[in-house]
């Protein structure tokens, strides 16, 4: 299983990745990412929180990528994932807020 840290384009995501110091961390962002990093698998493209189906898209992504923990760093992601917390819990996916 893996950990997803959102806001991959931010310094905060790299700081958190360094603090966690694990090999199973994936960085993701809904904003523009370097194509080279996405193709290499070091980063993944996330659904946009403006989408009405954001929570379900994130759940599907987590299940597809074997992600069991999410650290949402952007406020809009945090708000939506907090509302859908029970849904993620039912699938064994933990959402951790800093």
Explain how this protein is built:
With 98 residues, the chain is an alpha/beta fold. It is globular and about 30 Å long. The chain is built from five helices and five strands, in the order E-H-E-H-E-H-E-H-H-E. Strands 3-2-1-4-5 form a five-stranded parallel sheet, with helices on both faces. It has a single domain, classed as Rossmann fold, CATH 3.40.50.20.
Chain-wise SSE layout:
Layout: E1 2-5, H1 11-20, E2 25-29, H2 35-40, E3 43-45, H3 54-64, E4 67-71, H4 75-83, H5 85-90, E5 94-95
Parallel strand pairs: 1-2, 1-4, 2-3, 4-5
Concise account of the structure shown:
The protein is 43% helix and 19% strand.
Descriptive labels:
5 strands; 98 residues; globular; alpha/beta; Rossmann fold; 5-stranded parallel sheet; 5 helices
> How many β strands by DSSP?
5
Number of helices: 5
Question: How would you spell out the order of helices and strands?
Answer: EHEHEHEHHE
- What is the CATH C level class, in words? Alpha Beta
- Class derived from helix and strand content: alpha/beta
The helix fraction, in percent, is 40-55%
Please list the strands of the largest sheet in the order they lie side by side: 3-2-1-4-5
What percent of residues are in strands?
15-25%
Cα Rg: 12 Å
Task: Determine the CATH topology.
Answer: Rossmann fold
The major beta sheet can be summarized as: 5 strands, parallel
Number of domains: 1
Q: Which word captures the global form? A: globular
Distance between the termini: 21 Å
Q: What ranges have pLDDT less than 50 throughout 5 or more consecutive residues?
A: none
Known CATH architecture: 3-Layer(aba) Sandwich
Could you tell me the mean pLDDT?
Answer: 94
